[in-house]
Amino acid sequence: MEAIPREVLICQTDDGREPFSEWLNALDRMTRGRVRNRIDHVEEGSLGEHRSVGRGVVELIIDFGPGYRIYIGQIANEVHLISGGSKKTQNQDIKDAQKFWGKHE
Length: 105
Prior knowledge:
Layout: E1 7-10, H1 19-25, H2 29-43, E2 50-54, E3 57-62, E4 68-75, E5 78-86, H3 90-104
Parallel strand pairs: 1-5
Antiparallel strand pairs: 2-3, 3-4, 4-5
């Protein structure tokens, strides 16, 4: 199966905040690099390890440190970065991502 390149976009709240960017910028340099590398693979067409968490939200899994997660929505070949988190905050992160995506899809 051939990988289909995807356009990656960062979601904004109604007041212009970017929850994904805020989360990413709060990470240490090494972790930011791993997250950016994961996003590069998505742009190249590979979602890698992921799972649907419901309501149109997909969780990209990064098996590093505490188990980082990236929450996305997809429309055709567009991947919309909603937010991120870790395994520790996973349940609340999923709820927040689902609520956001339901409003902004």
